[in-house]
Amino acid sequence: IYGFLLHYALDRKVHPYVYCMEQEILKAKPFRAGEGFVHNHIEFNIDMLMLKTKLGYNDARQFRTYETVKGDKYDIEQIARLMQFVIKKVFDIQLEINQVEQAYYDTIKLQRFLTDDKGIKIPIISVLQAPAKLISKVSFTSMMRHKESDGKWDYLNLSHNQWFFPEDKSQKYNYDFFELYNMALEDAVYLIKGFNDVLSSSDNMAEVTGDISFLNGLPVK
After folding, report:
1. What would the pLDDT profile of 44-66 be if each residue is shown by its tens digit?
2. I need a labelling partner for 44 at 20 to 30 A (CA). Which of 66, 121, 149, 162 fits?
């Protein structure tokens, strides 16, 4: 649950910036691809830059995400039970524990597939995906880390150019990504503390989150 709150805290602070940059890049039309591709392209370039800055990875391909989602059988079973409960509660879909566990294992397999630590997969997949990319504007390689950022855009906004919330253009800022990241850290601490307080009270978690969307950083209507 803490992991989800960390993800949520970062997304609700950073997504407005990413979506704004996405619009700017799409206007320039440097790619024959759709919004999903550009969104992934931005986030993975940010990942590569943050891995170098925060963790010292000169070759971002060496960071293996599948190793971060490992767990023993007991851990995975407990995660599956939690997810089974949430899926039933939110979507009214009843899944078997083994189905949820399999989804977890499939995630690890997918992360292995998308890791190209030797730089062999991306050139091959780029060729194979070319026809599908033209038709459906889907790109697997946009979800794979290269050695380093392509440097084509100021992904971290180190120039402090003005950007805005795409769904509320009155909200304009000059924050760089590091500033947003630090805000998200503070937000994560607040959300985790709020979650712990809710467990021992009759408060509603919506009061803690403010019902803020992880997509656009605005209250859900």
Report:
1. 999 999 999 999 999 999 999 99
2. 162
